[in-house]
Write the structure tokens for this entry.
Amino acid sequence: MLEMIKSGARTCELMLEDLQEIIGQHQQQPTNEEMLEEEGDQQEEQQATQEDDVKAGELTTRKLTEVLTTITRLSEQLQKNTMTGLIL
């Protein structure tokens, strides 16, 4: 019985040491590297969320710019062809 009590006491001591270590780890200030890594993770999450917010079929700014650029080029080409008499 005495052995069981000693074993239980040792288990409690180990648990206490583990808890103290965990608490100590959480009380430490993060390093610059850890803060930069956390910031990068947050930015990746935010970007992923923003990409998820774009629904299928919606025009993004980039796609809209591409469409408008194409329309402008086609319009310029049409005017050029009209002036040179290529279009009847």
